[in-house]
Amino acid sequence: MDVPCAPGCQVASVNSIDGQVCGGLVDAARPASRSHVLRRVVAAVVTPSPRAFLMCVCGTFVLGVLVLFAFSVYVNPWGDFGKTGFHRLYNARLAKADYIDGLAPSDLPEIVVMGSSNTMRFRPATISRLMGKSAFNFGVFWGRAEDFLCITHHFVDDLQHKPKLVIVGIDTWSFAPAMNEHPVFPGIRRRLLNAPQLSRHLPGVGWTKRAWANFIDSLSGQQLALSWKLFWDDRHERTEAPRLESSEWFETDGTRVRYFWEGNEVFEAVETGAYSITEDIRRLIRDSSQSGVRFVDQFPMYNFDRMDQTKIDYMVETLDVCQRESIQVVFVINPVHPLLYQQLIAHTRHPQHLEELKTMLSQFRRDYSVVSGIIDASDITTFGGDPDGFFDPMHPATRNCDLILERVAAEVHLN
Amino acid sequence: MIFPSYIFVLAFLPLVLCGWYLIRSYRAKLAFLTAMSYVFYGWLDYRFVALMLASTLLDYHCGRKIAETNSPATRKRWLICSIAGNLGSLGFFKYYGFFTQSCAELLAVIGIDASLPVLNVVLPLGISFYTFQSMSYSIDIYRGQCKPTGDLLLFTAYVSMFPQLVAGPIVRYSDIENQLGTLRHQKTNHEQICDGAWLFVIGLVKKIWIADVLAPVAALAFDTESSPQMITAWVGTLCYTFQIYFDFSAYSDMARGLGLMMGFTFPINFNSPYKSANISEFWNRWHITLSHWLRDYLYIPLGGSRCGTVKTLRNLGITMFLGGLWHGAAWTFVVWGVFHGALLMTHATWKRLTRVQLNRTLAIGVTFVSVMVGWVFFRAHSLEGAGSVLAGMFGMHGAEPFSYVSATLGISFPGIYEQFSGMHGLAFLLFVTVLTFGAPNSEEIPKLRQPIVGVAMGTVAVCTLTTFMNETPFLYFMF
Which of A187, B35, B38, B132 sits between 20 and 30 A of A341, alpha carbons compared? Predict the structure, then answer.
């Protein structure tokens, strides 16, 4: 297709669509008209040219990468690039570490609870009442062995503080291999990496690796989709990450105060006993079996083949630190709702994992004199707990947690 | 490091291309290519770098020794040395566990409890490919089909060349010898780089947005403990049939694309195999470089089709049996190979006995379903598993209500949160079917050079980049 040229066009090269040479002449002394410039631009982008093609591929690619990166940095949904952003999830690790860092040495807790969100109702107030010492709940979402190591190192090495006791809430998946293989930090939660005072104690986490991880995270579809949602759909504001003191999720002693189940906030209802979760879980199990999907598949963290030696090594290193600093340790094997427990026993390797876990903890007790107790609350029914004392199939409510803490207090004798 | 990964696309590839075109000296170019290929391989699994180097040195040495002498016995001795070394390492790393376990099971059947030593041998990546590649060098020299190189660096560069190192195409020395030689006078060929970019991006799209999307649906039939019912079995097998094609041909496209970007033309490995009207045609279109390798180094030396019907059928059977075993050390692969051998034998017999020609569309359909049934063995974890899926396909486990489709056969695209329903999944499957049977393949697609197309391609490349977080290896990495 020929492109009509402006009167007097002298350019007889690649001025036209489909590589056709235009026939007109241009008066070189006269500036080209706007329509002529437009035609030249159109011709330039549609005329085959390998060199221009490659430049366009590379240029678009580099520009696209930069735009995506800049957008991710601006929205910063996970706190990868500092504390300011459109925060998606509350980073309990960072908030709790920041809070602890701000305490005067005399206010630092003598008893520290570590673990996953399943330990977040181990109330420091109950611990203080039972054992007469100040306490802090450092339970974090998806807390696993690497978190225990980092938190312990942070207290001992950074804050120069030796708690008298750490209560470690363990789940079988505390030692599970990575579920999603992050190319740079397989199996390490991003929220741990974004709490620098903690993650600096993690072996193999240098700044170059972190920078590369943050860069590629910023280009991931998951992060970009989330960033777009926060930026466009939710119209969040770019703010500082909320501190523990102003968090709506936690009290300042680290206890969690908000729980959701099936889209509803259930904290008050479960705590007061007004709502029984057991029937709901039974219904869900029934519905799942009818649709051909197993109920336990909603809890993929329990579905793994074997424990990861790296995670076990993290735990061993944590115990080495505790032994060296004479910090007593009590392990609590966290409970799940009895109906989920039955499903896990029937459909996953949970029985083997539990057995392996108990054997490992017993070995720790033999190897480390500071390990003063192992509380097995995995089966809450035989433990004497309340099946309705759960916010959802995994998270125990206060009455079950208090019962566990009473057993802990009975095992431990603090000076 | 795999091709669809951040480290490859954002760091390794730009570094290699910059280095490649900035370095002017021929030997420095070869050294650079070799070094980067070893970095690439070592990144995947550093433990086996020495093994690849040993295989290279063995064949380089054997090749020279074969060429140095005119004594047939000596030549044969060095050839045997090369073949034994290559097949020995392949046999040990790939088949040791399989053979010891199979022997123990066989002995147990006749009441002998044999405790054979169990070694948990890790399979070195790409060993099946690079041993075949370097072995063909010795054989070709023995046959007088190519001359040995006196340049160890050049030979090392040939064996380790990273684009096709791990999963082919299997490039013979004679294919690449001249191209490596012309590096001395290599000029930047923008046309070739454009073609390479096209193929690389097409490969990325096929891998990320087709193969990886179909994989979870295939898993519903093959990776569950329960026996799949009819719809799941058929849809799962169909998805795997497309998955393996788009996955493997994507790797080949990317390998060829990378080769072109550096000025090398590797042989074509796929030519719309599912458009084949018979099984023989299928093997001329599927994994072409392996088919040709087996033909030239196994089938023809066995006698090929020149020694009567019975021997031809025998040769087909042996070739496909070994072809199956090459793919993996498991009975499922052996049965897959034997199954294809049986199909080829049936086809050869049919051709000799009758002149009946099926309607082409019908013939394509029959071939496709036959190949699909074969993939059941290829994909299943065990023969029992394959039997279970086949039984499901033939309705022996019952059939689900159609509502099941929308409930469980949903798909999701990488990088996108939304889970699409089963009906969308079926629509996608239909789209892939049309693409497979109706669209031109990667080689046939017109590779436009308009800058505006370049912008579109760059945009597509950026979009694929957003899906690299869960690095999914290519299926053929395990072979």
Answer: A187
Q: Which residue has the tokens 């190189």?
A: B149
Give yes or no: residues A295 and A169 share one domain.
yes
CA pair distance A110, A136, nearest whole angstrom? 8
Domain-located, residue A389: yes
Please report whether residue A327 resides in a domain. Answer: yes
Same domain, A338 and A240: yes
Active site residue B327: yes
Peptide bond preceding B169: is omega within 30 degrees of 0, i.e. cis? yes
**CA dist., res. B322 & res. B279, Å (int):** 17
Distance CA(B258)–CA(B171), nearest Å, equals: 14
Q: φ, ψ for residue B15 (rounded to 5)? A: -65, -45
CB A311 within 8 A of CB A176: yes
Same domain, A164 and A43: no
Low-confidence ranges of chain B (pLDDT < 70): 114, 116, 118-119, 403-409, 411-422, 471, 473-479
Task: Report the DSSP pairing between strands A84-85 and A239-240.
Answer: antiparallel
* Residue A286 buriedness (CB in 10 A; 0-12 / 13-18 / 19+): exposed
The CATH number of whichever domain residue A180 belongs to comes to 3.40.50.1110
* Euclidean distance between CA atoms B419 and B412, whole angstroms: 5
Hey, which residues does A375 pair with through a beta bridge? A332
pLDDT computed for residue A49 by the predictor: 83
Nearest-angstrom CA–CA distance, B244 and B436: 12
Question: Using one digit for the tens of pLDDT, what is the confidence trace for B216-271?
Answer: 888 888 887 778 888 888 888 999 999 999 999 999 999 999 999 999 999 999 99
On whether both A258 and A124 belong to a single domain, the answer is yes
What is the span of the domain harbouring residue A304?
90-203+235-411
So what's the pLDDT on residue A106?
92
Tell whether A359 is covered by a domain.
Answer: yes
B chain contacts of residue A292, beta-carbon cutoff 8 Å: 400, 404, 407-408
pLDDT in tens, chain A (415 residues): 334 444 434 343 333 333 333 333 344 455 567 778 788 777 776 777 888 899 999 999 999 999 999 999 998 888 888 878 887 677 889 899 999 999 999 999 999 999 999 999 999 999 999 999 999 999 999 999 999 999 999 999 999 999 999 999 999 999 988 776 677 887 788 888 888 899 889 888 888 888 888 898 889 888 888 888 888 876 667 888 778 888 888 999 999 999 988 888 888 888 898 888 888 899 888 887 776 678 888 888 888 888 889 899 999 999 999 999 999 999 999 999 999 999 999 888 899 999 999 999 999 999 999 999 999 999 999 999 998 999 999 999 999 999 999 999 998 887 6
- How far apart are the C-alpha atoms of B332 and B318, rounded to whole Å? 16
Q: Is B450–A225 a contact, with Cβ atoms under 8 angstroms apart? A: no
Q: With CB atoms and an 8 Å threshold, state whether A216 touches B451.
A: no
Please name the member of A48, A56, A221 whose beta carbon is closest to the beta carbon of B458.
Answer: A56
Task: Compute the distance between CA of residue B367 and CA of residue B371 in angstroms, rounded to an integer.
Answer: 6
What SS3 state is found at A167? strand
Question: Rounded to whole angstroms, how far apart are CA atoms B94 and B117?
Answer: 16
Is residue A69, in this structure, part of any structural domain at all? no
% helix, strand, coil for chain B, step of 5: 70, 0, 30
A42/A189 same-domain check: no
- B440: burial class by Cβ within 10 Å (0-12, 13-18, 19+)? exposed
CB contact under 8 A, A50 and B193: yes
Contact residues for A229 (Cβ-Cβ < 8 A; gap 6+): none
What residue type is B17 in one-letter code? Answer: L
CB contact under 8 A, B468 and A50: no
A153 and A24 in a common domain: no
- Chain B residue set in contact with A, beta carbons under 8 Å: 5-7, 10, 190-191, 193-194, 197, 400, 404, 407-408, 414-417, 448-455, 457-459, 461-462, 465-471
